[in-house]
Amino acid sequence: MMRLLNFMASEGPRLGLKREDDVVDLTAAGLPATLEALLQSGPDYTERVATAAAASKTCIPYSEIEFLPPIINCAKAIAVGLNYVDHAAESKFEPPSYPVLFNRYPTSWVGHDQPIIRPHISDKFDYEGEMAVIIGKSGRYISKETALDHVAGYSVFNDGSIRDYQTKSAQWMMGKNFDRSGSFGPVFVSADELPAGATGLSLQTRLNGEVMQSTSTDQMIFDVATLIALISEAFELVPGDVIISGTPAGVGAARKPQVFMKPGDVCEVEIEGIGILSNTIADEQ
Question: Where does the record place the Fumarylacetoacetase-like C-terminal domain (predicted)?
Answer without folding.
Answer: 77-281
